Amino acid sequence: MASKNVRQLWAAKLAGKAVASRSPGALASLPVGAVLPVSALRAKTAGPAPHPLAAGVQRAAFSGQVLGIDPSLRGTGLALIEFTPGRQPLLLRCRTVAVPAKRSMTFALGEISSAVTAFLKDFQVRHVALEQTIYVQNFQTAQILGAARGAAIASAALHGHDDVFEYPPLRVKQAVVGMGRASKEQMARTVMALLGHGRMLASDEADAAGVALCHAFTWRG
Question: Which of the residues are catalytic?
Fold first, then answer.
């Protein structure tokens, strides 16, 4: 009987079926529902590991444009990525909404809202995804981050995106890099490789792109 390919092995694993692999113990130790990139799955099966770009092409089953947002009052990152099954994800536009500290919080929130609106008006965005805030140092910081997130979410809602998807940082890193504790540098390099981008993205833009990639890689709609 012909050996099963990686997709068949992974589908059987998720279905709770016994998996016969060419590599002893391949996938056997993975918990059902685990989120791993294709490169990690192939590393657990026989055969050479693919180039990171190939891994990105194979696992992007989501179709459409995703606007990823990394909210921050003074430096919100925005990245719009188009996903087509069987093709490498394409970065259409990215931007850091940089607001000087001397400008008021009200001005900063307006800039965030305007930037999100511009992306949504200029492109056919299917989904909007944000990085979820899971820890802040103090109450004032929480208020500021909440306001920045609110400006982005409100803008999305006003343009027909009633469902805004949120992902904690650990999940984003696990889905994109394969390690929940990956550094920002590792995240940026992986994002650049998956997108085939010619230059290193700014930190906030790379984080926003990571959120968009995470959404597409883990979407089960």
Answer: 70, 131, 204
